[in-house]
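_Full entry_
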Amino acid sequence: MPVNIPDKLPAIEILKKEHIFVMDDLRASSQDIRPLKILILNLMPLKVTTETDLIRLLSNSPLQIEIEFLGLTTHTPRNTPIEHLVSFYTGFSNIKDSYYDGMIITGAPVEMLPFEEVNYWDELTLIYDWARTHVTSTFYICWGAQAALYHFYGIRKYPLDKKLFGVFNHTINDPSFPLFRGFDDTFYAPHSRHTTILAEEIKRNVELTIHSESEEAGVYIVSSRGGREFYVTGHSEYSPMTLHNEYTRDKEKGMNSVEVPLNYYRNNDPAQPPLVQWRSHANLLYINWLNYFVYQATPFNIHEIAQLGNL
């Protein structure tokens, strides 16, 4: 089923070349079903890249999805034209009385700062609290996940000796958990971060469940509130060239300490193309989230989400 996204969004032409079908508002309205409303708070600096990556994965579901993009009013991105933000992003004041079946909150390049020193922290935590009563299930990614775990449960982040950068193998703690339907016993996912969270701190909180871990990358997926919140420390949404682009960017900045992303290039040689090992896992992850924790959990009358409460 196609994804209904704003007309003229740059991702449309990119995804059409990949034979991913998108539809405009007029055609979507002719289908006699209620689409799932998904809100995306995109905190990544390269907005168009992240928009495209996420829509690519959401489009693989058989469900019709209507996507909106949320922007922050207390922070102006430096790497995205203001015309793009004005055309495709809305502010919190415009959606605070609305309800959504699902929400995705991305990472952000601010992980070396204490949370409270991030200049949009107050607005972000306001949105986090709002989501608990206005969204059926929220999917937090990388720094967005660390920030949510800290805000809701006091889980701290810790600096790593060096950047965790590459594609790493993961295991599943409970293969019967619906999020992992169709997964193999082990699977790969990209990571790109300077900080981490500790499993022992999470395990001390009875409201949190660790579902997936990695010997090299640590905790990968945590849930709370019966699947109404997922915290994913990696970047399963990354396209094949994203780690390469990050590596090239850092080298061009003269960051000589940056290391080659592990398990990414063929033979770990940057002169060779990436070996994509995470695409099938990424598709399953988002399809299962949409099916089991959004579509099957959300009420048909979207305003009844409020009755789910802050459980």
User: Anything to note?
Assistant: The two ends are 31 Å apart (CA to CA). Confidence is low (pLDDT under 50) at residues 24-32. The chain is about 30% helix and 25% strand.
